[in-house]
Specification:
CATH class: Mainly Beta
Largest sheet: 7 strands, antiparallel
Order of helices and strands: HEEEEEEEEEEEEEEEEH
Number of domains: 1
Structural class: mainly beta
Number of helices: 2
Oligomer: single chain
Distance between the termini: 28 Å
Length: about 220
């Protein structure tokens, strides 16, 4: 009996591991050139593509590559990003998206010859916050933590020390698409790769509090 239970548990672990593999994710705006190799997604970013809604610029675009899986509840997602940024507004990072009017994208954005830690939060209209880096970096780690109705965005240069760059509202108790985004609004495309992408389930805080209050 114990062996049967152990076998079932191992099977569940294997299935869960497969379900989160890059090969089982979905494209929104699939680019012409991309590949998955050694658990790394590489792509040539579609030229003249972006995600933005209305504010400041007066236009809405929703046509950049986004490779995602759908998650419910609370979680932590992170990825290592390396890009060959060339033109103004070349960008790559994590994206968390409910629909075309509600999403967050966070990562590196190349503006006026400098690397910027960039977050765009969109609810009907978009806003944009940046932290300019002193010098170019070979890669960046971006982490997003969904807790209740908040998304916390962090960055790291070594996957050890993480610093918060944004805390933003996002509707809770709603399925959300989580994945890898890159955009090239001004340029003719650039190459980017995403490594070590992982989404880790976090137990629901409200449920844990209820269980604690209602212990037998």
């Amino acid at each position: 009996m114990k062996k049967q239970v152990l076998g079932i548990l191992l099977s569940m672990v294997a299935i869960n591991g497969m379900a989160q593999s890059l090969e089982k994710m979905n494209w929104f705006n699939e680019p012409e050139q991309w590949k998955i190799e050694n658990k790394t997604l590489s792509m040539s970013v579609t030229p003249q593509s972006d995600y933005w809604r209305i504010s400041h610029y007066g236009f809405t675009v929703d046509d950049a590559p986004f490779y995602y899986a759908t998650y419910g509840g609370e979680f932590e997602a992170k990825v290592k990003i390396t890009g060959d940024y060339k033109a103004r507004f070349d960008q790559a990072g994590l994206m968390l998206r409910i629909d075309h009017e509600n999403y967050i994208k966070a990562g590196i954005e190349y503006v006026d010859g400098k690397y910027n830690l960039s977050t765009v939060v969109t609810h009907k209209t978009s806003d944009w916050s940046v932290i300019t880096l002193d010098k170019p970096v070979p890669f960046i780690w971006i982490k997003a933590v969904r807790r209740l109705d908040a998304i916390e965005i962090f960055y790291s240069f070594d996957d050890k020390t993480y610093t918060m760059m944004r805390n933003a509202w996002m509707q809770d108790n709603t399925p959300i698409q989580v994945g890898l985004m890159a955009a090239c609004p001004d340029g003719q495309g650039f190459d980017v790769k995403f490594e070590h992408f992982k989404v880790k389930h976090l137990p629901d805080q409200r449920r844990l509090e209820w269980l604690k209050k209602n212990q037998e």
